[in-house]
UniProtKB/TrEMBL annotation:
<dbReference type="Pfam" id="PF08240">
    <property type="entry name" value="ADH_N"/>
</dbReference>
<dbReference type="InterPro" id="IPR013154">
    <property type="entry name" value="ADH-like_N"/>
</dbReference>
<dbReference type="InterPro" id="IPR036291">
    <property type="entry name" value="NAD(P)-bd_dom_sf"/>
</dbReference>
<dbReference type="InterPro" id="IPR013149">
    <property type="entry name" value="ADH-like_C"/>
</dbReference>
<feature type="domain" description="Enoyl reductase (ER)">
    <location>
        <begin position="8"/>
        <end position="329"/>
    </location>
</feature>
<dbReference type="InterPro" id="IPR020843">
    <property type="entry name" value="ER"/>
</dbReference>
<dbReference type="Pfam" id="PF00107">
    <property type="entry name" value="ADH_zinc_N"/>
</dbReference>
<dbReference type="InterPro" id="IPR011032">
    <property type="entry name" value="GroES-like_sf"/>
</dbReference>
<dbReference type="InterPro" id="IPR052711">
    <property type="entry name" value="Zinc_ADH-like"/>
</dbReference>
<protein>
    <submittedName>
        <fullName>Zinc-binding dehydrogenase</fullName>
    </submittedName>
</protein>
Amino acid sequence: MKAIYLEAVNSPFVLIEKDKPTAGPGEAIVQVKAAALNHRDVWIQYGRYFTKDYPAILGSDGAGVVTEVGEGVDQSWLEQEVVIDPSTDWGDNPHAHSNAYKVLGMPQDGTFAEYVKVLASNLHRKPAHLSFEEAAALPLAGVTAYRTMFTKCGLKAGERVLITGAGGGVALFAVQFAVAAGAEVWVTSGSDDKIEKAKALGATGGINYKQENWGKTLKALVGGFDVSIDGAAGEGFVQLVKLAKPGGRIGIYGGTTGMIGQINPAELFWKQLAIHGSTMGTNQDFADMMAFVEKTQVKPVVDIVFPLAEIEQAMRYMEAGKQFGKIVVKVSQ
Ligand SMILES: NC(=O)c1ccc[n+]([C@@H]2O[C@H](COP(=O)([O-])OP(=O)(O)OC[C@H]3O[C@@H](n4cnc5c(N)ncnc54)[C@H](OP(=O)(O)O)[C@@H]3O)[C@@H](O)[C@H]2O)c1
């Protein structure tokens, strides 16, 4: 089979031929039709991810067709169109994952290959309203957005939510899910064009975080937020604390711009804020996210589709940050 290999830190992604995997007990082989990129893949290429198990076949997101099932797996999965839950070994505590927790695509071989081996318990039927490309866009970013916003921050219909960096993969799902849940959605972005695109998806408004004093301007415009969802951290996070309503919740799933600036502790305790760190999601979060997508018929936004052989170019495209929506890879016909 064709697969994309990352030999070592700072090396390019290269196309190789490799033996097709076979299913052991409880496992299934999926012919990957489409895969999607996450910032995680770029961090791994630069050695800036906590798992460092090179060489590797990356890829946490995939949708395809089940071609083989191992012993003990229901045969009715064969030929089914599926989406893969990338999380394994979360553990018993729903509030945080165990040390054994793994994300598909390092240490296990991931979806940047024509076939991938997964636990059959991680298979979900592909929603009929989604193409393989749209379905492949969903798993990692979708479950991260879902858990941060609903499981952790408990966003409800009618509440006002601020989602930062709306052009990001996770952030854009948060925008779509929050709109579908009936919340009043506001965004930040470094691009006015992306704010307009978020509004076209149902956001009420937004502000460019490159603008000086954006936090103050936004506060004057809308008042406070019940919930903020952030993957950027840095100085911007301080603004989220200032923008929170009393009793507000802030969900943080990433740290793209680095260390958080100075926060006045009184703003945290006097307003009785809750800050929820969140990573990926439990298998239950994933199942809930899939049910939510079925019910609301949300369609992931796909910015661009690259052929499998051009993953290196796709990674550089992601780094440039011009995308609005997921960067998808077409793996097999
Ligand atoms: N904890 C988890 O489970 C988990 C899962 C997925 C991702 N992450 C982390 O979350 C972050 C985003 O991941 P992703 O895959 O969604 O990445 P991505 O698609 O590359 O998006 C990154 C986004 O960050 C935004 N951004 C950049 N500078 C910003 C700033 N100063 N203020 C606000 N937003 C800013 C940009 O938004 P605009 O284009 O709108 O300016 C950009 O689109 C990464 O750090 C990633 O490692 C964590």
